[in-house]
Amino acid sequence: MTFSPSWIAVAKTADFESEGATKSFVFRDENGFLFEGFAIRYRGQIHAYLNRCPHIPLSLDYGDGEFFDEQKQWLICRNHGAVFDPSTGQCVAGPCCGASLQRLALQIIGDIVAIEPPRAPELE
Ligand code: FES
């Protein structure tokens, strides 16, 4: 099985066997700049987002890979408490209400989870 060169393997499907599982990763854009992303399992689906809050461009977690609330129903920015819908990335409460996390295109091939880094202008 092969990926197009632009796809980057970031996890294995086994990392998402349980609801609320999360996996952080780093990737480089086409210009070689380093970014953080994270993938989650929510209601049986795997979603991936850029780890950058739309309020202020900071990581949502404190580097500890904690993105969900205690009930695993919402994604929380630990900086100022923005609440995001895990299935869409849209902020539903907090200082950036209505804005969205940047979704990363995700592909599952076999037991590999891969993302396609957004093109550089989308990451500014
Ligand atoms: S940086 Fe995320 S809510 Fe302020």
Bound ligands, named by name, code or SMILES: FE2/S2 (inorganic) cluster
Alpha-beta content class: mainly beta
Helix content: under 10%
Average pLDDT figure: 92
Q: Main beta sheet, described?
A: 3 strands, antiparallel
Strand order of the largest sheet: 1-9-8
Tell me the radius of gyration. 14 Å
Number of helices, counting only DSSP H or I runs of 4 residues or more: 0
CATH C-level category of the domain at 8-67 and 101-123: Mainly Beta
Order of helices and strands: EEEEEEEEE
Please tell me the CATH architecture of the domain at 8-67 and 101-123 by its name: 3-layer Sandwich
Distance between the termini: 32 Å
| Number of distinct beta strands | 9
In the CATH hierarchy, the third-tier topology of the domain at 8-67 and 101-123 is known as Rieske Iron-sulfur Protein
- Strand proportion, as a percent range, falls in 35-45%
Low-confidence stretches: none
Which term fits the overall shape?
globular
Tell me what the structure shows:
The protein is an all-beta fold. The chain has a domain of 83 residues: Rieske [2Fe-2S] iron-sulphur domain (Rieske Iron-sulfur Protein, 3-layer Sandwich), CATH 2.102.10. Helices cover 0% and strands 35% of the residues. A three-stranded antiparallel β-sheet has the order 1-9-8, with no helix packed on it. A three-stranded antiparallel β-sheet has the order 2-3-4, with no helix packed on it. The radius of gyration is 14 Å and the shape is globular. The mean pLDDT is 92. FE2/S2 (inorganic) cluster binds next to loops.
